[in-house]
Amino acid sequence: MNIVKLRGAISLLLLLFFIIVFFSGLGLHFAPSSRIARETGWTFFGFDKGTLQSVHTLPSFLMSFLIAIHFALNYKMLLCELKLLFKRK
Known about the structure:
mainly alpha
């Protein structure tokens, strides 16, 4: 697999995990306390609070791992961009 396809696959996975983490985080932010959520049968897109926490946690760890790989694959580009950003005129 060439590097361009690998970068594209990682970027696509990062986007997918970002969407999952964003919406599950939103649900967790607006969720009532665990006792109230359990007693009222509260759900967010069909997920109860416990399931939502699991759905949020695993993709968050995977996303962190992919971010590290993304930086490793693109560190030269990042350094060039930082040099241009902080270049004195």
